[in-house]
Each structure stands twice: as C-alpha cells, then as structure tokens.
Amino acid sequence: MEKNLKINPACDERCPVRASLSLLSGKWTLMILFQINENTVRYGELKRAVTGISEKMLIQELNMLVENKLVSKKAYHEIPPKVEYRLTELGLKTLPIVDQLAQFGLENLV
Amino acid sequence: MEKNLKINPACDERCPVRASLSLLSGKWTLMILFQINENTVRYGELKRAVTGISEKMLIQELNMLVENKLVSKKAYHEIPPKVEYRLTELGLKTLPIVDQLAQFGLENLV
DNA sequence: AATAATTATAACCTTTTGGTAAGTACTATA
DNA sequence: TATAGTACTTACCAAAAGGTTATAATTATT
C-alpha cells in the first residue's frame, strides 16, 4: 500500500490548473474580473477601481478577456464615448476562483 | 436607487485579491501547490510531476513558498540526498483556490 | 575508475510583461 | 478659443520572469 492515498496526475498540458492559469494568470486579470464581478462597469470606472493599472494594460486585458469570451463589451455610439463591460456566462464561472482568492487574502494576509 | 446593488471596494493595496496574487501569481506557484496537495512529496517527484519546469524555477519557487510559510521542508541527511515538501496549515488553505482553478479548467477548457 | 542518483547553486542570456508618455477623435462647456 | 471628458492607440523603454548550461557533493553500483 502506498503512502499517498490521493495521487494527483502529473501537471502536463492537460492539467486543468495549468489550462486555467494560461487564461487567468497575469498581474491584473483576476483583479479586473473581481472588479467587474456581477456588475456592468464602464471603462473609466474600472480604471479608477483597479488602482495603479495603466490604460495600456487595462484595455489590453479587456480585449484579451473579450476575445476569450470571459467579458462582453457594449459600446454606445455617443460623444463622449461610453463603453460597458460585463462578465459573460463563462466569465461568471471564474468568480468562485476570485472569491477564494479574496477569502484567502482576507483571512491570512490583509 | 443605484443599478449596482453589490458595490466592490476599489482594488488598492488592501484588496485581498491583490494580496493573494502577490503571493501566488507566477507561472508555476499554484501548480506546485496543486501537486503537493495533501501529500508529502520529494523534490524529484515534483520535478517529474510538474512537466516542463526547470530545476532553477522549481527550487526558486519552493524556497519562496517555504519562506512564506506555505510549504515546509524536511531534509534527511542521507546520501543521496532526500528532501520532502508538504503544505503547512497555511498552505493547505490555498487548496480551495487551486480546486476552483482545477474545476474551472475541467469544466470549460480541457 | 567511471557512472548514476539526488538535491541543489550560479552565471548568463532571452523572452515576456508591464510602464511611460504622447497622441487621436469628437463634442460640450467655459 | 481653450479646456475637459471619454475611450482608446502607438512607440519606445525598463523590469521582471523564466530558461539553459555547467557545476557541486557524496555514496553505491558497475
């Protein structure tokens, strides 16, 4: 009988943790998802909410998230511009991850 | 009445998500925690399990994790060397995060 | 003697990531 | 006429992260 009753499969290309991280790693990604959360948020609101992020990174990340179907974008064709972001069905499914990150931070770090 | 019933505080230095990420972001960190999981794992086992990681990154991450008290290290003074790693109490508390990452990957990506 | 096994360490280099600063477009307002 | 507000874009640069290769130490095995 082995010591390790619960044996993890190796962490290769098919590893689900690796797959998730390839999408969600990055300095700002999960913080942006956390801020959008279940709300409808404008670009400018996000910029203020995610303290310290540069405009370049913010739209770069938003574009990436839209491309990967985690976030949907709605542009009103007005002047001045108005663009709203929200989580898609798929994006909402990342919230449990974000919640666990928040809980861990709250209970052990902050 | 506002549209957003659930208002998130801004994501500044005190943001718990940010705090967690400052510890756990990085290409390999969460995968290593995932592999160690509830087991006692030797360095060489980890190297094989976390496919593609370089030795440099593996010990660098392990040292970081030990320093931050997420992982404990037990060295047997034998030849050839034998070193075992396991999660501390604090480290075990990251497993819900890892589990959510795994679940998201499993259900939506892999 | 030489090789294998194990857990590292160090020097060097490349790639990735992120930051800075400036500019665009259009209108309302002062 | 100048400024402010909004959502971007681009070019350039700096820093962080990660990869490669070589090396160490010690013993058992071949």
Summarize this structure as a short list of keywords or feature phrases.
homodimer, alpha+beta, three-stranded antiparallel sheet, 50% helix, DNA-binding
Helix segment count of chain A?
A: 6
How far from one another are the termini of chain A? 42 Å
Oligomer: homodimer
Order of helices and strands of chain A: HHEHHEEHH
Largest sheet of chain A: 3 strands, antiparallel
- As a percent range, the share of helical residues of chain A equals 40-55%
Gross morphology of chain A is globular
Instruction: Summarize model confidence as the mean pLDDT of chain A.
Output: 91
Kindly report the greatest chain-chain contact and the residue count on each side.
A-B, 53 and 53 residues
Q: Number of DSSP strands of chain A?
A: 3
At the fourth CATH level, what is the homologous superfamily of chain A? Winged helix-like DNA-binding domain superfamily/Winged helix DNA-binding domain
CATH architecture of chain A: Orthogonal Bundle
3D architecture notes:
The structure is a homodimer of 110-residue chains. Helix content of chain A is 50%, strand content 13%. With 110 residues, the first copy, chain A, is α+β, with helices and mostly antiparallel strands. Chain A has a single domain, classed as Winged helix-like DNA-binding domain superfamily/Winged helix DNA-binding domain (Arc Repressor Mutant, subunit A, Orthogonal Bundle). In chain A, strand 2 and strand 3 form a beta hairpin. The N terminus of chain A is likely disordered. At the A-B interface, helix 1, helix 2 and helix 6 of A face helix 1, helix 2 and helix 6 of B.
